Amino acid sequence: MGTRRHGLIRARKAAGYTQETLAIELGLDTTTVGQWERGKSEPLPYKRPKLARALGVTSRGLEELLAEGAAVVSRPSADYETWADDLDRVAVCLGRQEFDLAKLLLDRWTGRLVPSGDDRGLYLYGRSLRLLGDLRQDQGVLTGPMSARQSYGRAMAVFRELGADRRVAQLELQLAVLDEMGGNHEPAAEQYRQLATDTRLDARDRTRAQLWVGTALSKAGRNADAITFIKPAIRQFEALEEPQDWSVAFQKLALAHRGDGDLSQAGVAFQVALDHRPGDAPMQRVRLDTAHGHLLLSDPATADSGLKLLEGAAATSTQYGMMHQLQAISGIRRAYERQA
């Protein structure tokens, strides 16, 4: 027992099932199929005919699948080390919005090395899919084929198969971000609220989820409620010694105060964000300038400066292919023009 049954895995995927959906189809606990595929248990005889039908194979074919423990394709450990190093390079590229190089590095592995079932290969494959989702999210490709949502969903299936609960929860958090970016603010806020107390996540991710409850509520027009989530998150980021998250949280607080009509407190909060700006990467610069421009538009005396900041942020977004940021800037401009 304990040999991974690659034939069974291939048949299950070819039939369009995840481990969980196949278990549900068979009326079993959702962990059962994973146990079969790892060779840790056997399908009971009375379940085998239904399993064969679900997989679209004969009874004999099912027995062959169960007997098959295809050898793991051996890859030199150097391949895995190089793969891991390339993924670290991808993370750096994404931080700089070097999307073309990030995609090239990811394609090197997701296009050529399909994991053969060994846990280390699967983990690197899942991490690759997660980073591909991050890339597409930053580019504003949120839904549909070749989108962030598709990549995150595939990564989640891999990490579920590995039993990597923290990675699964992180992807649930990212899917909530996509809902918020897509305008589903109230549902996103509820997902964030649940994840803010989810022990699968570490303290930083739980605090980010709490901050993002406030962000989603602020976008939904519930700014007073948003502030009650953002302020505790600021204190927690300080306790965790996370200066970048702490600075970004002050940006969010400033916008919530603006939405609540308190421009004085908005200005104070944003000055903290300006004094402790998290960095000068294009995405960070665009987000800060967009928030600053949005705030300056609230006062006729500073509106021209706000429009100039938004114009610069739009140019940077276009230059680096950050389409979601560009759409957000266009929305702020249209709202200002309607009110002017």
From TrEMBL:
Any Pfam family the entry gives: HTH_3
Question: What SMART domains does the database record attribute to this sequence?
Answer: HTH_XRE (SM00530)
Q: Give the highest taxon in the source lineage.
A: Bacteria
Per UniProt, residues of the HTH cro/C1-type domain are 8-62
Protein name, entry field: Helix-turn-helix transcriptional regulator
